[in-house]
Amino acid sequence: MKRILVVDDYFEMLSFLRSMLELSNHAYRVVGVPSAEEGMLELQQKAYDLLITDLRLPGISGFDLARRARRLQPHMPVIMITAYTSDQGQQEAADLGIFRYFRKPLDADELLAAVNAALYGTASPPPPPPAAPAMGTPLAPPGDAGSRLARRLALLRAETAAVQVVLTRMDGELVHDTGGSLSQEMPGLAATIAGIMAGSYQLAGQLGSDEPFTMQYQAGQSVDIYSANVGADYLISIFLDANGRRGRVGAVWVFAQRAVHDLLPLLPPVTAAAPPTPPPLVVPEPPAPAAAPPVEVAPQPHPVSAPAAPVLPAPTAAVDLDAFWEQATQEVDEHEGMRGISWEEARRQGLISRHLGEKPS
């Protein structure tokens, strides 16, 4: 187990370096601290095989840390990182015997090669041997482009500690397989992953992305799969052991982005390829429900009509009151000559029977 001490006061850079080193080799034990003072405490308590430090740190500088580390562990190599290079700084690094002097932004491939050279005396450890070859016809570019593509995918596998890395076209055709335990099932897996990625392209179009970058994650029982598109025609799939999934999503994302950037110039555009269309989901129709028995309805009594509401006369035109009273007065005058008659007169005129008795008193 190689012990590596990383010193950087920028938290994101410190986290990136730790993740990159741990995922590139399971034999690395990485400790990260944000200051040179804490780095000195670590060096006083434990022996380390490599020191990686930033040049500008709060308090003691990276050069001062390197000088003091030499007194504690004279044979420990030191890799220096800085955002500001100068001839004087490079000369001072050479005088201190700094193993490598890097300028930000870092190139992950060069840094990993320097780390392996400092620890093992070689640029990089040999990649794990491939298992069964990939099924199907390989579509990798011929010549130097194909060799560079294979080396870049092998490096991605080492960076992420993946069990297998596969490059496919968006139509599901295999382009390159680093080899692994899933090679027999890879043609079917690649076609399924490509079909899922095609759906994300539709979403990217709806969001107005001209050159979308999509990364998808699928947790499995034995392996987890990270997939990222390489331009519009290709995608890479990274298969990792499911037992070590904690705390590596960010590092895989960083390494995948770097790999996509390096792979794009090596891959020719695919003009005739079309994303595979997943088979339609066939849902069986439910059986028709049984006919319900007829419901007998009891005869209802004849409804009793409610009494009709009184019909109000329609409103008439306005009445002339003077004319009304004048007409009423005339009718009274016409009947003034009509007087009542006596009982005897009525009997005499035969208007009433003579047998009705006497005139009431």
Structural class: alpha/beta
Instruction: Provide the CATH architecture of one domain.
Output: 2-Layer Sandwich
Cross-sheet strand order for the largest sheet: 2-1-3-4-5
Average pLDDT level = 76
The number of helical elements comes to 10
What are the segments in which pLDDT stays under 50 over at least 5 consecutive residues? 126-138
Explain this structure to me?
There is one protein chain. By secondary structure, the chain is α/β, with parallel strands linked by helices. Among the domains are: 2-120, Rossmann fold (3-Layer(aba) Sandwich); 143-266, Beta-Lactamase, CATH 3.30.450. 37% of the residues lie in helices and 16% in strands. It is built from ten helices and ten strands. The strands form two sheets. It has a five-stranded parallel beta sheet, sandwiched between helices. Strand 4, helix 4 and strand 5 (100-103) form a beta-alpha-beta unit. The longest helix is centred in the middle third of the chain and has 21 residues, at 186-206. The radius of gyration is 50 Å and the shape is elongated. The termini are far apart. The model is unreliable at 126-138 (pLDDT under 50).
